Amino acid sequence: MSAVPVTVVAQATREVPRRAFVAQIMGLPMSIHVRGPQALGTGAAAAVEAAFAALRTDEAMFSTWRPDSPVSRIKDGRDRLVDAHPRIRHVAALCELAGHRTGGSFAAWLPGADGRQHFDPTGLVKGWAVEQAFTALLADLRKLGPHDALICAGGDIAVACSRTDTPSWVVAVEDPRDRSRSLRSLELRTGAVATSGTAARGKHIVDPATGGAADGLLSATVIGPKLTWADVYATAAFVKGPAALPWIATLSDHAGVLVGTDGAVSTVAAMTAQTTRWSSLASTV
Amino acid sequence: MKKIVLAVMTTISGLVMLFSYHTSTQSVAAPTPEEADTGNTQSDAGTTTTAPSATASASSSASSSSGDGTYTGDAVETRWGTVQVEITVENGRITSSDAVQFPSESRKDQQINAYAVPALNAEVVQAQSASIDAISGATVTSDGYIESLQSAIDAAHLG
Fold this sequence. Notes:
The complex is a heterodimer of chains A (about 280) and B (about 160). Helices cover about 30% and strands about 25% of the residues of chain A. Chain A is built from seven helices and twelve strands. Chain A starts with 17 loop residues before the first strand and ends in a 6-residue tail after the last helix. Chain A folds into two domains: about 15-160, ApbE-like domains (T-fold); about 165-285, ApbE-like domains (T-fold, Roll). The radius of gyration of chain A is 19 Å and the shape is globular. Chain B folds into two domains: about 1-115, no CATH class; about 125-160, no CATH class. In chain B, strands 1, 2, 3 and 4 form a four-stranded antiparallel β-sheet that branches. Chain B is globular, with a radius of gyration of 20 Å. Chains A and B meet through β1, β2, β6, β7 and β8 of A and α1, β3, β4, β5 and β6 of B. β8 of chain A pairs antiparallel with β5 of chain B.
């Protein structure tokens, strides 16, 4: 049905070595897949372990579950943000930017039970930390020759391909009503896919405008070049509800899949800065 | 009604293919393929560019309710320039949204009509499909992971 010209990505016939690694970090299952000649070797394993280690370091710094983490100390007022580690202040600045880019649908300062504004950058930290660790992983893998990689952090995904003889990564979008099924799947060679919804943890996403739980959609998935922003935009889209549809169309280089409360699936894409990037976004499966 | 929808979609498809050859700089006001639609609002011919829209979620449903049609929203200022969005409503539901106006002057080499609703597979597929590499969904907890499809995919490739 689609009248849009789509680049068909050649499917590889040759099997390339591939290995998956799994770790529990930030309370999430995190999987990394490496594909390429050295995927089964110790070099790839060391690169993946370094990525997991970097994520654990960020977990220790940004956790709001650990009462004595630097961010917990800022959140409850024991420490001040201005005195914080540069990495924390950088995240705080990104949260400000996220607030602007989402028209206020994303906020790191939320009212607590005491009515005071508490600093909680959790909504941005995961995607950002994963993107940072993934970028470092790609640099490490590059030393071993051309490799492809994928990271899935509790449902938020980033992929990259250095090889040209491999099939694109196939990312499926989960059906929020039946988590054993997927609604759409897409091929990506580079980019990120993030989904925000209530299927796994119940209503936990707060609309900064109202202070209440967002409930206008079952889930919002955003596809884009960087996980940090795909994640932020997915959260914002979920908060915006059905109004996210025209909003996503204004986000250069991004696309969205929204599932309404009635289960209706809507897809939307904005224009691209590099049209070729998304022309490789072909349908499969 | 079905024929009309089909005819409109065919026209749009033709236009999209035609516009795929669109060169870089000129400003084009598209013909009005949506004229057959009721409730259509066409954007200004004087605006920078109007592109025909193509949606991945076009419905061929024969039924129709009031309010169906194509609507063009207000122009929104973004950091790249002005963006205007067109929404298609079918059976009272928004089925697609496309940017019909977007900045072109800063990107003269950009084939603006090549932007695409990603060709997301419209079929409901079993997520157990062997070809899937990852599942994007609402945050999976560590407790839920063991039962998740992602864990099955990971397990197939653990060293």
